[in-house]
Amino acid sequence: MAIPKISFTSPSSHPWIHDVFLSFRGEDTRNTFTGHLHHALIEKGIKTFRDDVVLQKGDEISPALLEAIEQSKISIIVFSKKYATSTWCLDELVKILECRKSIGQMVQPIFYNVDPSDVRKQFVKDLDMHENKVKDDIQRVLRWKVALKEAANLSGWHLNNGHESHFIQRIVEEISSILVKCTFLDVAKNPVGLDSHIKAISKLLSVGNDDVRMVGIHGIGGIGKTTIAKAVYNSFALQFQSCCFLANVRETINRSDLVPLQETLLSETLRMNTNLKVGSVDRGITVIKERLCHKKVLLVLDDVNEVEQLEKLAGDKNWFGPGSRIIITTRDQHVLDTHGVERRYKVQELSDADALQLLTLQEIAPFSAGQVAGKNTMQVQITDEGADCRLQMQMQIVYCRCRNISPEFKIWLFATINLSPEIKIAANSYFSCSVSWNAFRKSYPEEGYKALINSVVQYAKGLPLVLVVLGSFLCGRSKPQWESTIRKIQRSLDKDIYEILKISFDALDDNEKAIFLDIACFFNREWKDFVTKILEASDFDPVIGIQVLIERSLVNVDQHARLQMHDVIQLMGRNIVHQESPDEPGKRSRLWSHEDILRVLKENTGTYNAIQGIKLDLFGQKLRLLIIRHARFSESPKSWYNELILLDWDGYPSPSLPSNFHSQKLVTLNMSHSKIKQFKGIEVNILSLF
């Protein structure tokens, strides 16, 4: 049967409690058709409201029914022969159609042994019998007539002396399929800071206009692109005829090819219970274009890393019907450039306030043992609908023997949550007891945790992935364990964080990887032009290489033309170098740690053909970068190798360079604050003395 267009309001603005509301005349079908349909829906796991089942004795029937209608995603109206003889049914019908218009509820009629034309004509005539009963409310009768005519024109199911069990099975399967397609995606356990992202992307999408738009969401790995895309999808999915969220495109294609993704796209947008088999990528392209070109589609392609993926899944705007929207998330901005995606949103790091809130939402604060003797819990919904903040949080009041709350932590808690003054006043009345906000799940942090929490926030630099992983790991741990973890993460990334971030590195070619590692180990926050010259002299291709790193959000260029790499990304790069030889630093390609360099110097374990760059005095045949700052030496080395491109030694201890040093590749020489008096025999392409 044809399914009518669905248009629900955003899930954040309407509380759906029931999947289906059944409207029927009890005397006609309660114990027969409707009873069987209700049972079949319940058996399928579909939450179905039926008045004689849900309402308890003593309820006010009419208000409860009206509320149940409003709280249902779908209303099914069973039109039987005597449906219009019940004023109760007619009032329900009016309310259902009002909800269809006001909140986008889906309305599905069943014509049970009646014809739609009967509803338009005969049922309207049957209303004459009610005029004497409601003669003081003629407008009510008029509303019934309008509602019957409107409902008769809706697409639905028609049974006329057919096989009821097969008919019911088909209805249940279609309703189940619709509900699955309309089920909202799980966004995040603790969605912090999403409102501003949704608002910005909503402007780019302009849902409601008839043009077809592609919008790109790009940014560094772990920044929250997928989470944002899910939230946007949930906000708008039910305003489209068809919708599909293709998650993890990159990972899926690594396991197979594009055909399964094409088949999933078609299955979900065409609402098929089984996957449509296309056989090949080329045939899949044709089917997508032919079957979706007249549909208003919302499509999300998540984690795309190659333009070919876009060409095969959403090759052109004309593949989709008027009003369609295609959202693409990617780490690589160049993919959007190549595919001509003009509307883009770069996801920025969280503010310190949002980062603090996200971290504390991971249930990190330990609950003081012995503080609680017994708990009586009640839920209070606090809503701030001010212009600056629309925050909904749950406050769980925990009654304890200990009723003292530190004023310092009360102030800190409010600052963390960022509530408006009105809500703070309302919430403050509850602070006569010990409290547990959803922002902490347990109690507020004990004395001494504030500084530790701030240390983690500063370390994460607004990267949600880091905050979530560390917050979960630190949950319930003691202060010494916090301190130990913070020291550890300064040296090495958490494994889960490392693996996710390293995906971006693995996608680089060899030239780009070398440039990335040089920046991570030596050149973060250095002038872009300066770094470019050094890398060019190393036979790299830094102009295109650095641009690729920028496009993939691995490096940025600040307003002063300096290269800026996120601290966690830099640590990931240094971890990669560390993994080259975890136990023997002398076999690594780059050295920057004082401890590692001193160990190599002391033990003389440097490998000539491995080390390419260091920041202390160690010399090998492949050494091309030497940067020494804030270090004192009694004398200079006796010999150097002639592969040096950059020599940057602040406070060089000798009056001259080694006599056997004749580098023809030296590009930059910085010997500021040194004892050097002559550069005999040294040819420098670009002499730089500070």
Describe this structure in words.
There is one protein chain. The protein has 690 residues and is an alpha/beta fold. The protein is 42% helix and 14% strand. It has 28 helices and 20 strands. The strands form 5 sheets. A 5-stranded parallel beta sheet has the order 2-1-3-4-5, with helices on both faces. It has a 5-stranded parallel beta sheet with strand order 7-8-9-6-10, with helices on both faces. β8 (297-304), α15 (307-313) and β9 (325-330) form a beta-alpha-beta unit. α10 crosses α11 (225-236) and α13 runs parallel beside α14 (281-292). The protein starts with 17 loop residues before the first strand and ends with a strand.
Approximately how much helix is present in the residues? 40-55%
The fraction of residues assigned to DSSP E strands is 5-15%
Termini Cα gap: 80 Å
Radius of gyration, CA atoms, in whole angstroms: 34 Å
What class do helices, strands and sheet pairing give?
Answer: alpha/beta
Largest sheet: number of strands, sense, barrel closure: 5 strands, parallel
